[in-house]
Amino acid sequence: MRNLYYIFLIPILLISCVKKKSLEEHLIGTWSNLSMKITFSNDSIYDVPEGKWEQILKIKPIKTTYNIDKTYHSEYRDLDNKVVHTSAGRWEIKGDSIFLTSDNITTSYYFKYKNKTAEFTGMLDWNQDGKPHELYYGKQKKE
Fold first, then answer.
1. What does the alpha-carbon distance between residue 49 and residue 51 come to, in Å, rounded to a whole number?
2. Measuring CA to CA, which residue among 124, 65, 142, 101 is closest to residue 74?
3. What is the 3-state secondary structure (H, E, C) of 8-29?
4. Would you write out the chain's pLDDT as a tens digit for each of its 143 residues?
5. Distance between CA 103 and CA 88 in Å, rounded?
6. Cα torsion for 29, 61, 76, 21, to the nearest 10°?
7. What is the pLDDT of residue 111?
8. Cα separation of 60 and 68, whole Å?
9. What pLDDT sits at residue 20?
10. What's the rounded Cα separation, in Å, for the pair 118 and 59?
């Protein structure tokens, strides 16, 4: 009976000792946008489904690199692969959310990671009226 106890206990202990990667460890690296959906306060929706990024937005998928020093850098390229815009700042993960700060503005997103794909959901000031009341949902893939 005692041997049976050890047969079940040892695998449980081994499994519990294996360290799972944290969200921070999963985040480090370069990501490309796959899709996004913006829902406006008037219930209109701006939808860029997966596979339609270049066709709808007329740019390559945005590439964002999250560095171990908690900085990030995003590159926006036109269809000829020329850089048309960049943004940079700092990132921080708290619980299940990521906080991105750029130009003294912090935006938070619920961050869900699974199999090198991440979903970001948060409220933005997409129309730049000073009020973050547009619901953003974006999906990105780690390269």
1. 6
2. 65
3. HHHHHHHHHHCCCCCHHHHHCE
4. 444 444 444 444 344 344 456 889 999 999 999 999 999 988 899 999 999 999 999 999 999 999 999 999 999 999 999 999 999 999 999 999 999 999 999 999 999 999 999 999 999 988 888 888 999 999 999 99
5. 9
6. -20
7. 92
8. 25
9. 53
10. 21
User: What is the DSSP code string of 52-93?
Assistant: -HHHHHSBPPPEEEE-TTSEEEEEEEBTTS-EEEEEEEEEEE
143 contacts 32 by C-beta, under 8 angstroms: yes
CA–CA separation, 98 and 121 (whole Å): 10
**Does residue 78 contact residue 84 with C-beta atoms inside 8 Å?**
yes
Question: With contact defined as beta carbons under 8 Å apart, do 87 and 99 qualify?
Answer: no
Please tell me the predicted confidence (pLDDT) of residue 131.
Answer: 87
* Residues 126, 127, 132, 138, Cα dihedral to 10°: -20
Structure tokens at 92: 């921080």
